[in-house]
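Deliverable D4.2, example record:
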Amino acid sequence: MGWWRDGVELQIRRTGQDSEKITVNLFPIDLGHIDLLVQDGFYANRTDFIRTAIRNQIDRHADAARQAVARRQLELGLRQVGRAELEAARAEGRMLHLRVLGLASIAPDVSPELARATIASVAVLGALQASPAVKAALKDRIA
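Output generated by the structure prediction step:
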């Protein structure tokens, strides 16, 4: 799946551990149609069908998504925040505002105290990976 930045498509590696599980409620007739397409070999399984349908809708609205990303000034893809970056920000008296569409990951070696001292806000459209202690420390700053 691709994301865009400055007219360039960025690829995000998809693996089992990088994906998020969601629950979708479907009417029996819709589920039956999906099963029929799977049985006839159009899709490997239900998940393959649902992922394809989601990607098709994202592609269909790609222009609107690009405009929204630019308007909201979001970083695309994977944004990793490590201890060294946060210590440098603290030394400069600077606070970070994480605005990510994709995956924001705060390194395991970041303490809750360092995160709280250097991260002013977190807005993630996608997923946030951080230790439970860091998430708790930033609870009031996560939108």
